[in-house]
Structure formats: C-alpha cells, structure tokens
C-alpha cells in the first residue's frame, strides 16, 4: 500500500507544480515541444527517486537539477547540424506586440550561451534564485556562479550590440538603395 501512497504523493505534486515546472523547462530549451519532453523526462527520472527526497519542499530544486542535467546530456549528444555564418538570422516574432518581440529576441539570444551559462542566467534572473541557491542547484561554488553569470551577461550584451549594429547597417543600406532607385 505504501507504493500507491508514493504514486498519489507524486501525482499530487505534479498536478500542483506542473505549470511552474513547464515554465522552468521552457526557459532551459527554446522549443516548446522540447520543453515538454524535457519536463516529462525529468519527471520520469524523479519518480524513481521520489521516496529518496526526504524534504519534499526541495522537490522543485531537485527537478530543476534533473532538467538541467538532462538538457546538458541532450546538448552533448546532439549532432552538430549548425553551420556558422557571417549573418545571423532575423529573430522570429510571433506576435506584433513589443513584449512578445522582446521575449523572442531574448530566447534567440540565449541560444548563443553555453549550457552552463544559460543555466546560471535562467536560475538567477528568471527563477530569481540567489547566488547561493543557484550554486547549490548547479553543484558549483558561489564564485563560479558569479564569474559565469558575469561572462554570460557580457556575451549577451555583445550579441545584442552586434545585432543592433547589423540592423542599423541594413537600414542605411536600404535607404541608400531607395535613393539610388529614385
């Protein structure tokens, strides 16, 4: 009978926390379908160890760690289909509102970060975890979290500036072509 109690406890936890957990997964991988797969994989892996989590209030942190580890495994195992190019593709904008455009750009730009950097940025800024909580969740020292976050934010700034310069150069080029055509 203890086994069915375990199932009910886990099912209740998932029912109560599934939206927040899916948001966390969505922040770790840009594709919504991949985020669902990531969460599902993390839940399957966590279910087998559910009884071992003595303090269930730490279940979110445990699941985030499992998602980060799983995402890292996927990243390492992926086939390198990416081809470096001089020109970055335009950011996808699914909605015309500025907020959605900013979100799409941010998700696109997060893709330039290494998995470790992306994990630190997501936990510190989206999940609003402290440096110490982030260090504990990722199994690294607080100094490593700080330096990784510093490098990641510098890389994001550089990428934003690069895209902004590319956009302005394109605008100037288009205006020049319009003048020549007139």
UniProtKB/TrEMBL annotation:
Residues 15-79 form the RNA polymerase sigma-70 region domain. Residues 105-156 form the RNA polymerase sigma factor 70 region 4 type domain. The keyword DNA-binding applies. CDD domains: Sigma70_r4. The keyword Transcription applies. Pfam families: Sigma70_r2, Sigma70_r4_2. GO terms for molecular function: DNA binding; sigma factor activity. One of its GO terms (biological process) is response to stress. Gene3D superfamilies: 1.10.1740.10, Winged helix-like DNA-binding domain superfamily/Winged helix DNA-binding domain. Keywords: DNA-binding, Sigma factor, Transcription, Transcription regulation. Belongs to the sigma-70 factor family. ECF subfamily. This is RNA polymerase sigma factor. The lineage of its organism: Bacteria, Bacillati, Actinomycetota, Actinomycetes, Kitasatosporales.
